[in-house]
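Tutorial, part two.
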Amino acid sequence: MKFCDQDFLLSNDVARELYHGTAANQPIIDYHCHLPPRDLAEDRCFQNLQEVWLAGDHYKWRAMRANGVPERLITGNASPREKFKAWAATVPKTLRNPLFHWTHFELSRYFGIETLLEEDTAQAVWDEANRLLAQPGYSARGLVERMKVKVICTTDDPTDTLEYHQAITKSGWRVKVFPVFRPDNALRVGQPEHFKAWVKKLSNISGVKAHKFKDFLKALGKRHEFFHARGGRLSDHGLERMPTLDCTEKQATAIFSAALKGKAASPEDAERFAAFMMDFFGALDAEKNWTKQLHLGALRDPNSRLAAELGADAGCDTIGDFPQMAGLARYFDRLDRNGQLPKTIIHNLNPADTHLFAGMPGSFQDGSVPGKLQYGAAWWFLDQENGIRAQLNTLSNLGLLSRFVGMLTDSRSFLSYPRHEYFRRILCDLLGTDVASGRLPNRRDWLDSLVADVCYRNAKNYFAFPS
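Running the prediction step on this input gives:
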């Protein structure tokens, strides 16, 4: 069997028919990514393959470090060509890592390059990709359009002006780009200098002097409304875990005031404050029929030396071992009791939590929306074949696969959209294998509908983006 051919990952006839006949034809809704809106607004042209492929990809950076590549050739001052050659030399060492598959998917789907990447082929690949990147249709927008993307949801701080989103809308580009409200900075009362600076920025952008707690909440509400007016229909929160402590408004006010005076909140008070704020954000989302995303379980920057040198998102983060269920259940229960539980997607990073996260949504469905609470796509360290199969199998066993809103990229790279193809091939192989073994009937109408729903239609209906 040829590596990465048209039937890659498709082990039986039904899987092949489902993928080529249905899945491959579905558009993409990328409801969670980290693409820079400015690059899309300005339709950035990339100077070389390293710039578009390696410059922001911390997955590849981690692999290069593990392969003994010095930092100068990863994030340092080496030339783009030197950095690319270091990656090319690393690729053969990634056998059985998903990066090996993704690398060759990306070269093939964007550039038509079928050559296996290694040190000996690096120059030819570099030259051909750079030749194409200089052609029309290989700008930021052109690369997105090649993958049949219909909607992109970026990840944006409440203090963002959203000027690039507005520019994209005014340009009439057929791909819709919407902001996602990510208010993690609003919780950082344990870092008073950072928090004070951010509150000042919030005051300036909202027009509300947020020096008192009630005004702080008012300013955040205004920014939430601003995002809604710009097409935003999702929020996102990156927490280690949901808080387990309760917090009154009086307590939250005191913690807020102390932080603005330069006093760092204790871990317990920071957790209390987060609990109050997450209830507040939940109510905002429910009021506007938004979807809340909870990305839980990352241990951020355990390598303090590298974090100090390179900052956040440098490939230092890893899987955290945090207790998840008590806080999550309490959170959902509080919002549900108050009639303020929004549509919610929960993502775990620790595979030990897979069954817990898949089971929890079933306790809070209310019949108002199909799949109102969702166990989300395999995320980050779980975004590989085994992790995707585990997510699909666990969701199938404990919930309804048929109502799943499907895959996302969670990426900063414009060459990451073949991850949707990777997911779709695995989905079709899973279903085809069940048919081949007699676990599912060969009802093509049911199977085709399920595949189209999970790949595209569920997300289209669930998020209800403005047209």
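The mean pLDDT is 97. In part three we will examine how such features are distributed along the chain.
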